[in-house]
Amino acid sequence: MDAHDFQPGDTVKLKSGGPLMTVDGVGKYGMGATQDSVLCVWFEAVKGQQVKKTDTFGPHLLVKE
């Protein structure tokens, strides 16, 4: 899949598993980025609290749920 196959609001998951994530954006994130990646948001339980996590992933690592 290409990065632009993903839209903000899509629900995705890593092909290798893990939590469901929501696409927050698609673009060139990070200094010197030359390729588009997918910015994802999800929540994890940490010491009984839900903590917001964010990270960027190459589109080849993600599948839509």
Question: Which terms would index this structure?
Answer:
65 residues, 5 strands, mainly beta
Structure description:
It is a single chain. This protein has 65 residues and is mostly beta strands. Helices cover 0% and strands 57% of the residues. It has strands at residues 11-14, 17-27, 37-46, 49-57, 62-64. Strands 4-3-2-1-5 form a five-stranded antiparallel sheet, with no helix packed on it. The protein is globular. The model has no long low-confidence stretch (mean pLDDT 93).
Write the layout of secondary structure elements.
Layout: E1 11-14, E2 17-27, E3 37-46, E4 49-57, E5 62-64
Largest sheet: 5 strands, antiparallel
Could you estimate the helical fraction of the residues in percent? under 10%
Mean pLDDT: 93
As an assembly, this protein is single chain
Rg on CA atoms, Å: 12 Å
The ordered string of helix (H) and strand (E) elements is EEEEE
Strand content: over 45%
Helix tally equals: 0
Task: Output the structural class.
Answer: mainly beta
The termini sit apart by 14 Å
Query: Can you tell me the overall shape?
Result: globular
How many beta-strand elements?
5
Which stretches of 5+ consecutive residues score pLDDT under 50?
none
Trace the largest sheet across and list its strands.
4-3-2-1-5
Short characterization:
By secondary structure, the chain is mostly beta strands.
